[in-house]
Amino acid sequence: MAQTPSGLPSKIAILPGDGIGNEVVAVGRRVLDLYREKKGLPLELWDLDLGADRYLRDGTTMPKEIFEEVRDHCGAILLGALGDPRVPGLEHARDILFGFRFGLDLFANVRPCKALDDRLVPLKGRSAKDVNFVVFRENTEGVYVGMGGNFKKGTPDEVAINEDLNTRKGVERILRAAFQHAKAHGNRTVHMADKSNAMRASGDLWQRSFKEVAREYPGIEAKHVYVDALCLYLIQDPSKFEVIVTNNLFGDIVTDLAAALHGGLGMACSGSVHVKPDGSKIVGLFEPVHGSAPDIQGKDLANPLACVLTCGQLLAHLGWTEEEARIERVVQLAIREGKCTRDVGGALGTKAVGDFVIERLAAEL
Ligand code: ATP
C-alpha cells in the first residue's frame, strides 16, 4: 500500500453521508481526484455507502469490517454531514460519528478560522487580516460522553443531570496538541478558555494542566481567558488570538461564533485527529463544520468551499502541507471573483463553484 509523506497510508475513506454532505463531498472528491490524476499523488479513494439512506434501506450503521479497514489501512476519512429528518433518533449518525471519534480516540478537533477576504468579515472596522486563528476543541470528553440522566422524569420533582467529564490525560493531551501546533506554526500565544470561576473542579484541572504543559513550551505565551470573555473579545478584536484551546462544549459554541467571523458555516472546515505523544498521527476524520442542512438539500445551493478547504486540511494531515495553502489560495480567488454561492455573496450553484475550483486548481498543479 502506498505511503504518504506523513507515513500514513494513502487510502482515503469518502463518506458523503446525508443531505448537502453528498453535494459538497462530490466537489471535495473531484479535488482529491485531481490531485491523483494531475499531480500524481498516490491517493486511493474508497467510497463508502453509509448514512441515512443505507440505514433506512437495510439497517446498517457502521459495520465492524469497515471500521477496522479504516483504522488499519486508511490515512484519512472525508465526511460530508450526518443527519436526516427521516431518522429522528440519529441512530446512524451516532454510530458512524461516535464510532470513528471514540473508536479511534480522535481527541483533537482542529478548526481553523481564517478569513480569506475582507468581505467575509462582518465586524465593523475589521478586515481579513484580523481573523486568523485556530481552535483546538477537546473531542472525546466533557458533557458529550452522555453521563447522567433523569430522575422522577415527567413529574414536578424532575431532576436532570449531565455530567461534565474531564480526565487529567484528556485535558493534558489536548493542551499539548495546541502547543505543538503553535510551535510548529510559529505562533506566539496559546489561549486556554474555561469557566473555572463557576466550574471549579474541572476548571482547576484545566488551569493546573495548562500551567504545567506550558512550561514545556517556553517560547509560547500561555494566556487564560474565561470563555464568556472570549466571546466578547472575539467580536471586539479577534486579532488577539492565534491558538485557542478549550473543552468540548465551549469549543462547540465558540467555533460557531468563530465561523461567523470568516464567512459562516459554508466556509468552516475541521479535522478530528489523534496526536501521539511523539507528535505522530493516526487516521484523521475531516469534515466541513456544517450539518446536512435539509432546508437547502438538492437545490444546488450548498457552499462547497468548506469541504474544499477540508480537503486541504486532509492533504496537510497526510504530509502534503503546501497543498493546504494552495487550496486556500484557490478558495480565496473564488470568493474574490464572486465565483461562489449565495451565502457568501455570489450567485453560483454548488456544481458551478466546484467547476471553478477544479479549473483553477488544475491550472496550478
Ligand atoms: P445539523 O445537521 O448539525 O443538525 P443542520 O443541518 O440543520 O444542522 P447546519 O448545517 O448547522 O444545519 O446549518 C444551519 C443552516 O445554515 C442550514 O440550514 C443552511 O441553511 C445553512 N448552511 C449550512 N451549511 C451551508 C452550506 N455549506 N452552504 C450554504 N448554507 C449552509
Structure description:
By secondary structure, this protein is α/β, with parallel strands linked by helices. It folds into 2 domains: 1-113 and 263-365, Isopropylmalate Dehydrogenase (3-Layer(aba) Sandwich), CATH 3.40.718; 122-262, 3-Layer(aba) Sandwich (Isopropylmalate Dehydrogenase). It is 41% helix and 18% strand. The protein has 11 helices and 12 strands. Strands 2-1-3-12-11-4-5-10-8-9 form a 10-stranded mixed sheet, with helices on both faces. Strand 1 (11-17), helix 1 (20-37) and strand 2 (44-47) form a beta-alpha-beta unit. Helix 7 runs parallel beside helix 8 (248-261). The longest helix has 18 residues, at 20-37. The mean pLDDT is 96. The protein binds adenosine-5'-triphosphate. Adenosine-5'-triphosphate binds next to loops. Residues 20, 81, 83, 265-266, 290-293, 295-296, 302-303, 306, 341, 343 line the site of adenosine-5'-triphosphate (ATP).
